[in-house]
Write a structure and sequence with these properties.
It is a single chain. Strands 1-4-5-6-3-2 form a six-stranded mixed β-sheet, with helices on one face. Strands 9-8-7-11-10-12 form a six-stranded parallel β-sheet, with helices on both faces. α2 packs parallel to α3 and α2 runs parallel beside α6. The protein contains six helices and twelve strands. The protein folds into two domains: about 70 residues, Hypothetical PUA domain-like, domain 1 (Ribosomal Protein L25, Chain P); about 160 residues, SPOUT methyltransferase, trefoil knot domain (Alpha/beta knot, 3-Layer(aba) Sandwich). The longest helix has 17 residues. β2 and β3 form a beta hairpin. It starts with 5 loop residues before the first strand and ends in a 9-residue tail after the last helix. By secondary structure, the protein is an alpha/beta fold.
Length: about 250
Amino acid sequence: MGLPLFYAKPEDIDTTSGRLDIEGPEASHMVRSLRVREGDLVTVGDGAGSVFRVKVTAASRDRLEAGILDSRDVLREKPFIRLMMAASRPSSMDSAVRRAAECGVGEMVPFQAPRSSSGAPESEVRLERLRRIALESSKTARRAWPLTVAEPLGWPPESGEGTRVLLWEEEFRLALEDALPEVAPAVVTLISGPEGGFSQEDARLLQSGGATPVSVGSNILRAESAGALAALLIRFHYGLLTPCAG
């Protein structure tokens, strides 16, 4: 699989001198867990689209220094995909975040739904865990723009801007691809249900907020899979899965 893309704080990257210094947990992870050593070539991002290929010049337990060899700027994909996912069991939410990061979701927004198993929006402790998972999974996926996890919402959630689609297993007429505009919009907001899905009443309420119910086929998808797989289908639909330089 190779090394992931690491993230450095913008203040740790000095493009004028061509130097990069990483301290703390990230450096410790690179050196102690992944055995990054002096002379190694690694890829580092600033989390805001800039990606640097660097050569390590010094590595210790909690500090890593490197020289910048070259860089590139990666634009955000269009459409930006926002996944609004109803709160489910903690293990399902953890898995959902990992899959969302791998499949190109830009932002995940947890929300409370009537059938959510947790009975409450994500706690601060759970939210911080989801954000850590999002960052680690984005590293592994080598994303120039890592997945972010927003503050949780209540019910019914504001469905946001852009094209809004509701992933609903009881929709049998309109396919996801047929609900997407011909030209890629700035934002596509996906609304995905909890384990047990949305009721008819839930779906009607979300529709009244501007969401269009769609189907992604006859197979029933797990709560942790549906949003990520729909995001991948959207990216394929708009030609965003073509090979590119790493």
